[in-house]
Amino acid sequence: MFAAAERRLHTVTAEAYDEAIPDLRSALLSAHFKFRESPGSVLVVVSGADGAGKGELVHRLNEWLDPRGVETHAFWDFTDEEREHPAMWRYWRAMPGRGRVGILFGSWYTRPIICRVLKQQKRRSFEADLERIVTFERMLTDSGTRIVKLWLHLPKEHQRKRLKELEPLGRLGPDDWKHFKRYERFRDVSRQAMEHTHRPNAPWLIIDARDRRYRELSAGHALLAALRPPRGQRGGARSKATVKRDYAPGPARLETLDLSARLRKGAYERELKALQSRLSSLAWAAREVRHTTVLVFEGWDAGGKGSAIRRVTQAMDPRLYRVVGIAAPNDEERRHHYLWRFWRHVPRDGSFTIFDRSWYGRVLVERVEGFATMPEWDRSFGEINDFEAQLGAHGITVAKFWLHVSPEEQLRRFKERQRIAWKRHKITDEDWRNREKYPAYLEAVEEMLDRCSPPSAPWTLIAANDKRHARIAILRTLVERLEQALKL
Amino acid sequence: MFAAAERRLHTVTAEAYDEAIPDLRSALLSAHFKFRESPGSVLVVVSGADGAGKGELVHRLNEWLDPRGVETHAFWDFTDEEREHPAMWRYWRAMPGRGRVGILFGSWYTRPIICRVLKQQKRRSFEADLERIVTFERMLTDSGTRIVKLWLHLPKEHQRKRLKELEPLGRLGPDDWKHFKRYERFRDVSRQAMEHTHRPNAPWLIIDARDRRYRELSAGHALLAALRPPRGQRGGARSKATVKRDYAPGPARLETLDLSARLRKGAYERELKALQSRLSSLAWAAREVRHTTVLVFEGWDAGGKGSAIRRVTQAMDPRLYRVVGIAAPNDEERRHHYLWRFWRHVPRDGSFTIFDRSWYGRVLVERVEGFATMPEWDRSFGEINDFEAQLGAHGITVAKFWLHVSPEEQLRRFKERQRIAWKRHKITDEDWRNREKYPAYLEAVEEMLDRCSPPSAPWTLIAANDKRHARIAILRTLVERLEQALKL
């Protein structure tokens, strides 16, 4: 892969550079300006050998763009805060919004490559990391992000020379010489990483980094191409292309639920007390070992989510949990991938986060109401599974509850809400409209249950016609999941 | 202060409670619903004795409000991340936006009181903390936030009883008995804190916490009163009352600047190289000791801020700094106090944050263009000084630069920008309009320089008619400030 970059020395004369720059700069600025209205974003990943001029290039790209539309993120060693989140969290925080350019100095490639070079991880785990990166980049490009992956390459002797030049200027990082001693291994591991992740949607551009002018012009033109997609590819985020759905409905699961399940008041109060007391101890025990839990509550309107959540939180010290109510996204959220706002709420180790509605809105309300196109929500099933798998891989317990009520019970509750003063605000015209779309929602729910139920993050279906039964079922499931996770 | 709460046992019978609740709940909900359109927010601070039912009350208030308009924040011990920011940062993160209710379990009172009880801080430093709290709360209420400060009080014997009841349920925190042993000292220190911070704009409500029903109804009514301000006090955030300005202009400072200062190319390049090399070492040295620097760049349009900032960043590893460009606030930012969005960018220890425009927009563009009312921008001077003092108290170096160019030089640059292709985007109709308002801006700048120049965060006026001179002056000042701060 590096042979082409090494075959000859790629240089640009000072004259040619000075002549090319004005045109390139004004083309970049004008493309960047137009790009503000784009439904996608551009991510520039700057990677390569130590001493190859990555930092300098980052400065140059910044100089060439309109500062109001670009943000640069440099990634240092993982901070304690970053370590206490799933690995990709730090990168999600750095994602540019639509119409903006993000320049990343250091990226999701850095750690897998270094760990593999230093033999801190096995080949299989390295390859699993790369596979995860492919999935991640696919998700970004699917949603309209263009990824420019630059690799600044230096042959060995040039790297040695460069490091020697930088040393007296105090510009060397603490590990640069240490890494140089492993030049060949670095080259081979990097090549593997690039070969595995060189995909049509996110190809690598390897740049001969020996000559400053050459590498700057190459990078500049690659960025320009990303800001100006060829005709016919515009609006990638909302492609109208017909996508064939690759889904055959599974067996209906909601039907199997026994909605007649009931619990008497006495038994309810006994069980509630016992389960809440157990949950309280488990929450403290989880805190002790910094175990994290994410709870998802979804269900029909008036299904009893709010009051069920309160039965959970009553058992916990308020410092141990956070309830996140999900409504329509705000303007900042709308400018990002739909999962971005949920990544923001992924908790730090040692606490509970309870989502009152969640990322499943993508395949429920957004699907049924047409806020997302079919290709968009169809690929969300995989993206959501991947998201939850990342939580699981970090050791987070993910418990998801669907509160199921019959249409008749829902109607009864709507009417009750209108009668009781302090419940009246809970019922809106939208609720009545949603009711009319029951069949469409039912289809969406069944597909969600079918496609998003991995063993590590299963849905628990709750028969919720009887609130007492529902609350106890939820608490019991949660207690069991926690006992399992904490091995208690 | 607690005598009234202890004088008699305040109780509410179950019947009276059951009768009062429906009215209270529907009044709360309807007031909360209307409050969504309010230009202010409500903060409920829940404090008081261990075992007095704070957590339970937090749950109850949540139950009574519309979950979509309320957020609860519980404060644990400071995390590493919080420790690496100025102390108030954690609370700024938790501030509710306009039209919302924030419930705080634990607050800025907790740490000063505990530290004083355990004699970890002297009386004088405790009083300084309280004074800072008064300033902070004044700032919040000035901007339309209503603060409900609840103190749940328990006489000693009742606290003992409560802790004994809670112990077998696993609901005691690790320090509860330890604190109980110091009951009298806790009571006295808390009383001092409350007496000092009991102000008309943010009074304390002490609630006899022995009876659950009594404390819940008391808190509920206090919250209701905050959600429903008495007639005539509506729209506190944008009060039309005439405020008398208490400011006599100081001597004009910009006039004293020698705008003819120039630097030849040869001397410039020599100095630039030397200063950048020094700055590079200093940036690494600062990282080493986790010293933080905040740089503020303000100045006339076309004053050369962008290119001056690049001369600073060129000298630094991209992982050591972050440039924050400040434009108009987004909708989330607009729903908060104007300082909120700057608090978001206050860096963690060990890095540089460079603000390209800043919080001074409040007393510059917002003042001149009328986006802020006179009382609003007039009180901002003090709020800004307080903000920077908090950065300073945390050990952060604050360096502020005003880039001054003559109107003639500005005109020359505007015209040049229109000529050169890649500079054209930099000049907008707004720039020309701002130019017409030169006298109003000049007055605003002079007042800002006069009122916001404490010794710990001085303005450095930069004669910027000559860009080379300006860049060297900035770099030299920065290097000097860093050498001083790092004692190098």
Could you write a compact summary of the structure shown?
The first copy, chain A, has 488 residues and is of the alpha/beta class.
Would you kindly provide a written description of the structure presented here, covering whatever features stand out?
The structure is a homodimer of 488-residue chains. With 488 residues, chain A is of the alpha/beta class. Chain A has 21 helices and 10 strands. The model of chain A is unreliable at 234-239 (pLDDT under 50). Chains A and B meet through helix 2, helix 3, helix 12, helix 13 and strand 7 of A and helix 2, helix 3, helix 12, helix 13 and strand 7 of B.
Oligomer: homodimer
Structural class of chain A: alpha/beta
* Total DSSP helices of chain A: 21
Please bin the fraction of helical residues of chain A. 40-55%
Strand content of chain A: 5-15%
Order of strands across the main sheet of chain A? 2-3-1-4-5
Please state the average pLDDT score of chain A: 91
pLDDT < 50 stretches of chain A: 234-239
Largest sheet of chain A: 5 strands, parallel
Largest interface between protein chains, with number of residues from each side: A-B, 54 and 54 residues
Inertia-based shape of chain A: elongated
The gyration radius over C-alpha positions of chain A equals 26 Å
Number of strands of chain A: 10
How far apart, in Å, are the first and last alpha carbons of chain A?
Answer: 52 Å
